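Hi R.,

As promised on Friday, here is the backbone we talked about, encoded as structure tokens. Could you run it through your design pipeline when you get a chance and send me back a sequence?
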């Protein structure tokens, strides 16, 4: 089971909180866990936490979205996220004014979600800086191949019992995807001594696929808000929301 938590944070008056503070929030979260739990998380190849920070104009507040991507981490971390009242970062404490908890979902439920959609058009909105690694270099345009590879890798890490490993099916899926519209801007995500080239904005993808492959693609899209897209989703990058069958903002 995987689960999403959204913590509404009150930004300090006169203080601009950049999205890269997601990394500091992650550091705070790790510091609250027992040492053995934190060590076990860092030993895993694909980290079972994906999170990001963005500003909500409607709420006039910061939203820290935290996705817990396996049952073990969900049991360890969820009590902390639901009970915290303030996050004491060095620069300024961030009061937690609201915690939104989405129902936990399984791979089987996401697959059923995919089957429930007959639409072939989807819009992905990248709420935090997103990038890919390709041939040892950063790629700052969401090509269809890179989107599919990223979503598949994150899915397989979260759901090894439902791993997508059929190369022929994945190739057919890739060939049926087409980005038909985008509204993107380049940006940089500061991380330690590096400023990672990345992008934010949205893309619209049309899927010209046979029904079984369309169901698979829509299941991956249903997973995107949990697993994120691209690299360093554990450090605040690649936060994504998705709407299937419509092109307005979700």
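Update: got your reply. Pasting your designed sequence below so it's all in one thread:
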């Amino acid at each position: 089971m995987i689960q999403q938590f959204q913590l509404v944070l009150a930004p300090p008056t006169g203080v601009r909180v950049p999205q890269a503070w997601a990394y500091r929030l992650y550091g705070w979260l790790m510091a609250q866990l027992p040492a053995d739990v934190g060590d076990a998380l860092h030993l895993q190849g694909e980290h079972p936490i994906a999170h990001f920070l963005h500003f909500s104009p409607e709420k006039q507040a910061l939203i820290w979205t935290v996705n817990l991507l396996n049952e073990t981490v969900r049991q360890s971390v969820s009590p902390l996220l639901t009970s915290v009242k303030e996050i004491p970062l060095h620069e300024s404490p961030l009061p937690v004014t609201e915690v939104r908890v989405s129902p936990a979902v399984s791979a089987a439920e996401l697959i059923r979600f995919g089957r429930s959609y007959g639409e072939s058009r989807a819009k992905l909105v990248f709420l935090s800086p997103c990038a890919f690694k390709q041939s040892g270099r950063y790629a700052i345009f969401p090509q269809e191949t890179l989107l599919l590879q990223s979503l598949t890798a994150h899915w397989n890490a979260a759901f090894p019992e439902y791993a997508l490993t059929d190369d022929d099916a994945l190739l057919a899926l890739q060939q049926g995807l087409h980005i038909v519209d985008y509204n993107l801007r380049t940006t940089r995500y500061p991380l330690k001594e590096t400023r990672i080239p990345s992008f934010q904005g949205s893309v619209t993808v049309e899927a010209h696929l046979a029904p079984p492959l369309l169901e698979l693609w829509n299941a991956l899209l249903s997973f995107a808000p949990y697993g994120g897209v691209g690299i360093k989703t554990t450090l605040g990058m690649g936060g994504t929301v998705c709407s299937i069958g419509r092109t307005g903002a979700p």
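One thing I noticed while checking it: The chain has two domains: 3-101, 107-244.

Thanks again,
M.
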